[in-house]
Amino acid sequence: MTNIPPADPRIEAVAARLKEDARKRAEAYAPPTDWQPIWKRPRKPKSIKAKKAELAKQRKRRKAAGVRRFYGAQSRRPQPRQNRIGSAAARRDARALSRMRHSNAWLW
Question: Which of 15, 22, 58, 106 is most open to solvent, judged by the fewest CB atoms within 10 Å of its CB?
Answer without folding.
Answer: 106
